[in-house]
Amino acid sequence: MKHKFQTTITLALLLLIAVPLSAQRERVRTVTATGSYVANQNETPAYGWSKALLEAKKQALREAGVMEDISSTTIMVMGGAENDFREISSELGRIEIEGRVRVEEQTNASPVFTNDGLIRYTTTIRADVLMEETEDDMLFQFKTDGLKNIYRDGEKMTFTITPMADCYLRIFYFGEIPSSNAQIYPIDSLLKDVQLKANVPVQFPPSKKNRQFFYNRKDYNYVDYDIGIDDKRNNLEQGVLLIVALKKPYPFMEEVSYESVISWLSRIKRNEKRVQWHGVNIVRD
Q1: Cα–Cα distance measured from residue 190 to residue 7, given in angstroms and rounded to the nearest whole number
Q2: Bridge partners, residue 151, by sequence
Q3: Do 172 and 241 contact (CB within 8 A), yes or no?
Q4: CATH 3.30.1660 domain span(s) along the chain
Q5: Which CATH code for domain 11-23+136-283?
Q6: 46 CB contacts (<8 Å, ≥6 apart)?
Q7: Chain-centre distance of CA 171, in angstroms?
Q8: Is 174 helix (H, G, I), strand (E, B) or coil?
C-alpha cells in the first residue's frame, strides 16, 4: 500500500502503556497434547517437526477449551484463493497460538513412512495454556461498509465504519513486503485519535466534513489510502486490512508487523476489543 503520509514511532512511550495493557488477569491450565503432520519427501524434517509442533499446540488449546478463540481469528482472514494469502492467514493464527501456549516438555516420536511415500511426524507436548478470565462483550460491535475484494493498482481505498457502541479505532495494513505495513489510523500529527460515537457512521480516510479528526486544516485533502503494487514485476499483490475497535484508547507505539500487532492485541482484554480482518487483492491491468 502506498501512502501520502508518514507515521512517527515513539518507542519511549511504551513504558507508559505497559501496565494498563498487561493488567488483565489470566489463569494457566496445564495439558498434554499430541500433534502430527504428514510431509512429502520435498519437505525438510525441520519443517515437518515444526508443523507437528504447531498441531500439538492447537490440540493443547482444544484440551484447554480455548480453540474457538484462535480459529475465529484465522478463518476471518481466509478470504483469498491464492497460496500467498493462505500463508498470511496461517501465520496470523500461528503467532496468536505462540502467545497462548508455553511448551514445558516435548517428545518426538520416530518418523513413520507411509505406504504412499509420505512421512508422518508426531510430537507430544506438556504445555501451559493461558486462559483469559474475561469473555467477549457481544454488544461491542461495529459494521464496515465499502471495502472491496479487488482494487486496481493506484486506486484509492475508502470505507465506512459504524460502531454499535462508543469506541476508539486502530487500523493497520499489512502487505506482501514489510515496507508496506503501516498503521493508517490514527496517524501522529495528522489524524487524531477521536472517539467514535455509537450508530454514527464515519468515512475512512476522514474527509474535511469530519474536521475533528485533523490536526490542521491544510491536511483535509492530504490523506488518501492509495493502494498499489510495490513490486513492479508483479501483476497481483495481496494484503490484509486489520480494523480494531477499543473501549479505551490503547495506543500502538511499535513498528508495524504481524508479530508486534498480534502481541499488542493479546495484551488487551477480550471484552475491551473487537477485531475485523479483511483481505485486499491489488491487480494491475
Answers
A1: 9
A2: 282
A3: yes
A4: 27-132
A5: 2.60.40.2550
A6: none
A7: 10
A8: strand
Where would I find the beta strands (DSSP E) of the chain? Answer: 26-39, 101-108, 112-113, 119-132, 142-145, 150-152, 159-163, 168-174, 182-185, 202-204, 236-246, 273-283
Where do the CATH 2.60.40.2550 domains begin and end in the chain?
Answer: 11-23+136-283
Beta-sheet strands, E only, within 133-167: 142-145, 150-152, 159-163
H/E stretch holding 259: helix 258-266
For residue 254, CA distances in Å to 94, 178, 223, 248, 264 come to 20, 14, 21, 18, 9
Spell out the SS3 assignment of 7-76: CCCCHHHHHHHHHHHHCCCEEEEEEEEEEEEEECCCCCHHHHHHHHHHHHHHHHHHHHCCHHHHHHHHHC
Q: What is the pLDDT along the chain (285 residues), one digit of tens a residue?
A: 544 433 322 222 232 233 334 334 558 899 999 999 999 988 999 999 999 998 999 899 889 887 555 544 443 333 333 433 444 445 555 656 666 788 999 999 999 998 888 999 999 999 998 876 667 788 999 999 999 989 998 899 999 999 999 999 999 998 888 888 999 999 988 899 999 999 999 999 998 788 889 888 776 666 788 888 877 777 888 888 999 999 999 999 999 988 788 878 877 888 899 998 888 888 987
* CA proximity to 240, closest of 275, 274, 278, 186: 278
Whole-angstrom Cα distance, residue 105 to residue 50?
15
The 8-class DSSP code of residue 222 comes to T
Q: Which CATH class is domain 27-132?
A: alpha beta
- Residue 143 has a pLDDT of 96
Helix (H, G, I), strand (E, B) or coil at 168: strand
